Amino acid sequence: MAEKFDMSNYTLLFNEQFDSFRLWGQSGAVWKTSGYWDERSLPGNGEKQFYIDPSYKDLGVNPFKHSNGVLTLRAEKAPSSLKSKIDNMDYTSGMITSERAFSMQYGYFEIKAQMPEGKGLWPAFWMLTMDAKWPPEMDVIEILGQEPDKLYGTSHYIDANGKKVVDYIRSFGLFDSSDGFHTYGMDWQKDKIVWYYDGIKVGEAANHSFDQPAYMIANLAVGGYWPGSPNSTTPFPADMKIDHIRAYQKKVDHKVVGIPKDWSAIGADAFTKMTADGAKTTWNEDYTLGSTETKVVLLNDWARHITGNDKNNYLASANGQYIELKGGKGNDTLLGGKGTDVFIIRNGDGNDTILDLSNSVNNTDKIRLEGFHFTHFDDVKPWLSQVGSDVILRLDKDQALLLKNTSIAKLEPEMFVFAKSVAAPANAPAVSGSTPSTSSAVNIGVGTTEAEKLKLSGGYVVEQKSGVSGGAQIKLTGSGEASGTFTGADGTYKISVRYLNEFDGTANFAVKVDGKTVNSWTGSGSNSTDVAQTRSFTVDLDKGDKITLAGTQGGWEQARFDWMKIEKAVSGPTIGVGVTQADKLTLSGYVKETHTAAHDDTLIMVQGSGTAKGTFSGKDGHYKLAVGYLNEDDGAADWSLQVNGKTLGSWTGSGGNGTIRSRVFELDLHTGDQITVTGSHDVGEYARVDWVSVTDRVNLVGVGTDGSWS
Length: 710
Prior knowledge:
With 710 residues, the chain is an all-beta fold. Helix content is 1%, strand content 47%. The chain has 4 domains: 16-250, Jelly Rolls, CATH 2.60.120; 256-428, no CATH class; 443-568, Galactose-binding domain-like (Jelly Rolls), CATH 2.60.120.260; 574-695, Galactose-binding domain-like (Jelly Rolls).
């Protein structure tokens, strides 16, 4: 029986569903449309296409078509008038690469696509390393258009003898790649590479020391030494259609440990503060500090390596595409600038400081940890601590790393690279290796429920963050849900949801009840900062309903939820903390009457019986509630007070001198409680009511000791 890919062991980190597509250079764009060095063809392969986009020389040629969640890369014959401007290539086509937006070490990488059929067409989904060295290269899928049922996967590497080697896997006859959408995936791990097509394992090869972060490329080449040139049967335009591109990280498969309890703490005072003052500047592409030097700033955007010495160093680079910064045994200060900066931290070095760690488009930094026990981001988490606006990563008994001006919540799995790992300290205590499980049933009652307490599925994970309720929220990559079971009574409720409206994208949010969407919205993308906002709406709920918060990532906005609050819906007249005039309530049987004894010259009266109702709009709590009524001198009317239909007390007028008196109750009230004053007249006393007062203090606000208004 064919071996199938088990997705349950993996966590989604990157999910491009092509709900939208922005060309490189536009706000929110993820995909670059040319190669690492801005190359637009690979002449070494004999290719005949030129990878173009509308911005290239302002020619306006667009090989990208986007519709209904599908991105199409289109290859076409180049008109003769265009060839002189595209290196005299015969065809235009499209490519996309995640090089400036996403790369990571190890994982499962997948494309769902429909490939074109035709002689000389060469669609591919493949990966290269961020350091721009070749080999290595991993080809998830390559197809020759004239043989759409023959599927190829490849690993290029250099063996121990320095020889370039190619490992191939082939699958013939599994399916026709041009007959519809199929998935092509590759599981790249430390020891091996496994290929899966439509979820079925089709081949495996050893991983030959390939541990650099890699990025993804999808392209439609035309011509070349392998596929040959198109001929008269080749259809143009030719389309490679892409439904999604995804990247997953394998879940931790070993015991995760924390910092040994008998180790002394390493605080902020263990790091050396250094600045660029007096630093040497150089335009070198690679620079190693001399034995007497301590500071250097590389000015060349094409610089690739800075290496320190065993003194305390200050190492800074320009805004180049890629650079490696490696200190020594001193306490080094590292500044990467924009681009992909790889900060190499080795066991036995000093306590280093990184000034500008980032993980945004055009600035995807990495921390390469060499010689420590870490092999997974889950290993790193227990060794992180937030110290003011900085983060300290404990590395070993006598070594730590300071990350300036960031937070634990901003650290992502793809930002870490692990090499030459060793065993964990023998006395390190075991901790949970992943996000706390929420697999058991979660109850949602009336009141506030933290989002991180719900049952999480899909791409949602818990994110620790200061300044939010409970110190944590949930975020996702791709799409996901957070759910629980409603335990309150049947009724109409107001649901309020706290979410983060981020400035770098527009995520989609929804609230579902028993699978049906009852409210949905799209983040507006604030101007320059992330803004926490609240969404409120009214809905009917029954005990046992499943309530779900659902999100879909938009750009880099990860559909973060903080909490959900459920309270009884307030409709019609309300009774809040303070004094509410009786004539403002919902009246049945009662009518308004002008009266000189009333506070505002108006009260309510009834002949027979009647009710005056309002909904409590204050917070849940313990209160004193008073009813101001007219104690007349010509009879003895009856009154009672009900909360949610339950009578809390009743009384009969004593036949007084026609003044306002009060009846006081002490009770618990909850938002949404229905408060009702009922009256029945007796002979000439018409059960008149002036006001209702609610207070959480001993002396009733605005009510004198005799019940008169003061």
